[in-house]
Every structure is written in C-alpha cells, then in structure tokens.
Automatic annotation (TrEMBL):
The keyword Transmembrane helix applies. Keywords: Endoplasmic reticulum, Membrane, Transmembrane, Transmembrane helix. This is Transmembrane protein 199. It is a multi-pass membrane protein. It is found in: Endoplasmic reticulum membrane. The keyword Transmembrane helix applies. It comes from Eschrichtius robustus (California gray whale).
C-alpha cells in the first residue's frame, strides 16, 4: 500500500531558497523534516534504501494543514505537480516446499475425481449384443485360431448391404482423387 510519494521538481524548488514556500514561514520542525527528506541523495548508486526525495503522506498532510490554517493562496495540488505516488516493490516470500508438494497432490486428486466424474456413465458394453469390448477381442482371437472367422457377412444381411455401399462410395472418392492428382501432375509437367 502506498504511504509516500516521490517529490517532483516543483516541490523541491518551492522549498529551496527563493521558493514559493519561503514567504510562508513554515514551522521549523516541518521545514527541517521536508528539507531532510528532499535533500537526500543516494550515495554510490545504492538504491536499496528506496528512491531519493521520498516524502511520506504524513508530511504532505502536515504541509497541507499548515497552508490551510494560514489561508495561503499556495495550493497543495500545485506544489505536488510532477510528483508521483511511490509504490514499493512487493517482495514475494519463497514458497514452502511442503506446501507446494501438498498442492500438487491435491491438484492430482482433483483431476482424478474430475476424470471419474466425466467417465462415470461411459461403459464398455455394446448394448446391441450384451457383451463387452474385451469379449469382442477374445472372440476375434478365438475365431482366428480356429480358422472359422467369417470372411464376409451372411448373404442378405443388412450389414453386408452397408459394407457394399461403403465400398462403392470409397471407390468413387478414390477415383475422383486419382483423377485430380493426374490432372495436377499433367499441368506441372506441361510447365516444364
């Protein structure tokens, strides 16, 4: 949370010699605090102490109160022109490895529960035949061993009609693709 601001040049100039705050005759304590804060410069590029000219909101409130009581024509918003609210960088503490491990376990558990919820009404049974898909694999393996695996469906069955229709449609699509491929190849050879 912001508790200070980075003073702009206008406030620094107003407090300096010949500045706008000089005729206001600020109380000694307030002037000393402001000059101490605004006069700070970083030594040796050390930025760990925070930026230069960092003024607390308390000091700004005291200055505003004093200017109000004196009936000054100098307004605070004019003095703060060019100043910025200072938001210190938030340092995140390192994460606890135990907590991270527990969170990972919980995520995995929740993912498993979600998967079970989604797949709870999925079954491996074919409703038409009353068997499971694993039974189908067993039947196929048994049929291949015995040599009695049917090469084609029974004549006249609906399944045979569907297979025949699918073969005809697939043949037509295959021939159309072959025709297009030949035309494209012919066009590319003609350009050489």
């Amino acid at each position: 949370m912001a508790s200070s601001l980075l003073a702009g040049e206008r406030l620094v100039r107003a407090l300096g010699p010949g500045g706008e705050l000089e005729p206001e005759q600020l109380p000694g304590k307030l002037r000393a605090e402001l000059e101490a804060v605004l006069g700070k410069k970083h030594k040796g590029g050390d930025r760990s102490a925070g930026p230069a000219r960092l003024v607390s909101f308390r000091l700004i409130r005291d200055l505003h109160q004093y200017l109000r009581e004196r009936g000054s024509t100098l307004y605070l918003h004019e003095l703060l022109e060019g100043s910025e609210i200072y938001l210190p960088e938030v340092v995140k503490p390192p994460r606890n490895p135990e907590l991270v491990a527990r969170l990972e376990k919980i995520k995995i558990q929740l993912a498993n529960e979600e998967y079970k919820r989604i797949t709870r009404n999925v079954t491996c049974q074919d409703s038409r035949y009353g068997g499971t898909l694993s039974d189908l694999g067993k039947q196929g393996a048994r049929g291949c061993r015995a040599g009695s695996w049917p090469a084609s469906p029974k004549p006249g069955s609906r399944t045979s009609q569907q297979v025949l229709a699918a073969l005809i449609v697939a043949s037509v699509v295959g021939l159309a693709e072959l025709y297009i491929m030949v035309r494209v190849m012919e066009g590319e050879l003609g350009e050489l």
